[in-house]
Design a protein that fits this description.
This is DUF3027 domain-containing protein. The chain is built from seven helices and nine strands, in the order ααββββαβαβααβββα. It is of the alpha+beta class and 264 residues long. The protein has three domains: 75 residues, Nuclear Transport Factor 2, Chain: A (Roll), CATH 3.10.450; 59 residues, no CATH class; 65 residues, no CATH class. The strands form three sheets. A four-stranded antiparallel beta sheet has the order 1-2-3-4. The protein has a three-stranded antiparallel beta sheet with strand order 7-8-9. The chain has a two-stranded antiparallel sheet with strand order 5-6. A hairpin with a 7-residue loop joins strand 2 and strand 3. The N and C termini lie far apart (118 Å).
C-alpha cells in the first residue's frame, strides 16, 4: 500500500539587519514615552515579519517585576530608515498578572449569599422546565412573564420545576460532595446511611439515591446524604466491650462520727 504525504513548509521571515540593530532607536523612543527611570536592560528581540522586529526591554517600574517594554520597529522596502510602530507593556514569563476574568454568575459558590442578596435565574436556564404547558410556540421574555403571572394568580403552584438536566446536575454534585460515599468520614464509617434509622426518605426521582440525615449528633444533620454515605453516628453502632466506659466503683458509706475522729 502506497502512502503519499504532503509536506507543508512554513517560511519564516529572515531577520532584517537594520531593524535588529535599531536598539538605540527603540530605547530612545521608549525613554521619551515612559521616562528613563522605568527602562531597564535590553532583553533581546523578536522577528515579527519581513523588516518588522520587536525589541524587549526590562521594566524597572515599581510593582511590575517581570514585565517587559515591547517596542516594535519596522523598515519600508527599499529604504534604510527605521521607524517606531508601537510601544506597549507586556508580561514576561515571571510577571505577576491578574487571573482570567470570570463572570460574576460563575464566581458565585454555595455559601456566598448574604441576607438580602438576590441571584436571579435566567428564563432559559436548562436546569428548569415549566410546571405547566403553554404550547409549542416559542415565547419571548414579556410573554413568559405574563404566563408566570397568570400561573401565580390561578394558584398553579411552582412556575418551574427541575428538568432532567437539573436533577442530574444536582445528583452528581451531591454524590461528589461531603454527603457522598467518597467523603473521608464515609470511607471510615462502620456502615452506610441506607441502613441507618435516622435516614429520612425523600420523594421524587432523587429518592432512589438520596435521603436526609435526621441525627442531631451527626455532622450531616439536616443535609442530603447518599444511601452509600455513612458516619460514626449510625443508629446501629455499638461499642466493643473494651471501648465501653468502666462502671463506677461501688459507693462507700461514711459511718464515722465526730467522736470517732477525736478518738484517733
Amino acid at each position: 500500500m502506497r502512502h503519499d504525504f504532503v509536506v507543508i513548509t512554513i517560511a519564516r521571515p529572515k531577520p532584517d539587519s537594520a531593524t535588529v540593530a535599531a536598539v538605540d532607536l527603540a530605547r530612545a523612543a521608549l525613554v521619551e514615552e515612559v521616562g528613563a527611570a522605568d527602562v531597564g536592560d535590553h532583553l533581546g528581540h523578536v522577528v515579527e515579519g519581513e523588516r518588522v522586529v520587536t525589541h524587549l526591554f526590562a521594566c524597572a517600574r515599581a510593582g511590575y517585576v517581570g514585565w517587559q517594554w515591547s517596542v516594535t520597529v519596522a523598515r519600508a522596502s527599499r529604504t534604510k530608515d527605521v521607524t517606531v510602530d508601537e510601544i506597549v507593556l507586556v508580561p514576561g514569563d515571571r510577571a505577576i498578572v491578574a487571573p482570567s476574568w470570570v463572570p460574576y454568575r460563575e464566581r458565585i459558590k454555595p455559601g456566598d449569599l448574604s441576607p438580602g442578596d438576590l441571584l436571579p435565574v435566567d428564563d432559559d436556564d436548562p436546569r428548569l422546565v415549566p410546571t405547566y404547558s403553554f404550547g409549542d410556540d416559542p415565547l419571548d421574555a414579556d410573554e413568559k412573564a405574563q404566563v408566570r403571572a397568570v400561573a401565580q394568580d390561578l394558584g398553579l403552584g411552582r412556575v418551574r420545576t427541575l428538568a432532567p438536566e437539573g436533577r442530574e446536575l444536582a445528583a452528581q454534585r451531591w454524590y461528589d460532595g461531603d454527603g457522598g460515599p467518597d467523603a473521608p468520614i464515609a470511607r471510615s464509617a462502620p456502615d452506610q446511611c441506607t441502613t441507618c434509622g435516622f435516614l429520612v426518605r425523600i420523594a421524587g426521582p432523587l429518592s432512589e439515591m438520596f435521603g436526609v440525615c435526621a441525627n442531631g449528633d451527626a455532622n450531616d444533620d439536616g443535609r442530603i446524604v447518599s444511601f452509600d454515605h455513612g458516619c460514626g453516628a449510625h443508629s446501629e453502632v455499638r461499642l466493643a466491650k473494651k471501648h465501653e466506659p468502666l462502671p463506677p466503683p461501688v459507693p462507700v458509706i461514711d459511718t464515722m462520727t465526730p467522736d470517732d475522729v477525736e478518738s484517733f
